[in-house]
Amino acid sequence: MSVLVTQLGVPIPAAPMLILGGTMAAMGQTSYASVVCAAVGATLIADSLWFFTGRAYGRRLLNSLVRFSLSLDTTVRVARNTYERYGAPILTVAKFLPGLGLISAPLLGTTAISVGVFLLWDFIGAVLWAGVWVIGGGALHDQIVQLLLLVRQNGGTIFDAFAVIFVAVLLYRWVRRWQFRRWLAHTRISPEQLDELMRSNEPPLIFDARPRSVREKESHRIAGARPLDLDSPEPIDPELLKRPIVVYCVCPNEATAKRIVNQLHRKNIHHIRALKGGLDAWEKRGYPVEPLPPDFHTAKAHMLEDEGEEGEYTVRARLAK
């Protein structure tokens, strides 16, 4: 049950229960196969629900998961880029990677992957994931039993131990979210403020940080926005960096924009803001967008960090004309 609840998105760690199941199997109270099969079955049920929900609701569902997830690592961009690089086999290790466990199934639901292929790779991944924790619990059963005895000697129960773990994980994720929102309060710019800035005598330089696959499906942009990639070796015109800079993506929590903003802040470029709510918020406010030009993807903008002397910086990019 804990595995099913976890895979459905509730921030309850399933690993401790699988470890306990492995310990019980090592003590002869159950079998390894039954514990693994139960975990795999629960995983397939939850992932199938996410897969078909993603197929029905598309990016709206993904944005909701990012918005309400307590894990800041859970971003659509990371999952999408990983899937585009490795394909469906990424499901074999997705549950071991922060941010991919929850988002992978609904993300693949938005693609053209067949149900059979998804279930095959998801089954393999579920077996590996459950097997590692269960076998680990069996291998460490002596130490785990000693820990449980220690808990009992101090007047606690196994449920108390799990409650402490759950509260600690929840508190950690809440603190990270609070820190992130505090950062956003000082760094982001609202669509209304951006519109006003674009009408001023000093319009900002706007970067479109959406993945290429998203731009191909939604081929429009904020007027004058330039495509952005973080891995270019080519330098940006220093004169452009004197202008205010605004970055937008499709993640509701601006996680990608935060990465870019922090990167430039470390290079003493502080006049950069992240668009609150991304392109979706801009469109919902009724502000205009324009079609992407034909050369938008071939003339990308890029950024990366260069190590230089103290107090110096180099930002590399290639900008669309």
Automatic annotation (TrEMBL):
<dbReference type="InterPro" id="IPR051311">
    <property type="entry name" value="DedA_domain"/>
</dbReference>
<keyword id="KW-0812">Transmembrane</keyword>
<dbReference type="InterPro" id="IPR032816">
    <property type="entry name" value="VTT_dom"/>
</dbReference>
<dbReference type="GO" id="GO:0005886">
    <property type="term" value="C:plasma membrane"/>
</dbReference>
<feature type="transmembrane region" description="Helical">
    <location>
        <begin position="112"/>
        <end position="136"/>
    </location>
</feature>
<dbReference type="InterPro" id="IPR036873">
    <property type="entry name" value="Rhodanese-like_dom_sf"/>
</dbReference>
<dbReference type="Pfam" id="PF09335">
    <property type="entry name" value="VTT_dom"/>
</dbReference>
<protein>
    <submittedName>
        <fullName>Transmembrane protein</fullName>
    </submittedName>
</protein>
<keyword id="KW-1003">Cell membrane</keyword>
<dbReference type="InterPro" id="IPR001763">
    <property type="entry name" value="Rhodanese-like_dom"/>
</dbReference>
<feature type="domain" description="Rhodanese">
    <location>
        <begin position="200"/>
        <end position="291"/>
    </location>
</feature>
<feature type="transmembrane region" description="Helical">
    <location>
        <begin position="156"/>
        <end position="175"/>
    </location>
</feature>
<keyword id="KW-0472">Membrane</keyword>
<dbReference type="Pfam" id="PF00581">
    <property type="entry name" value="Rhodanese"/>
</dbReference>
<keyword id="KW-1133">Transmembrane helix</keyword>
<feature type="transmembrane region" description="Helical">
    <location>
        <begin position="31"/>
        <end position="52"/>
    </location>
</feature>
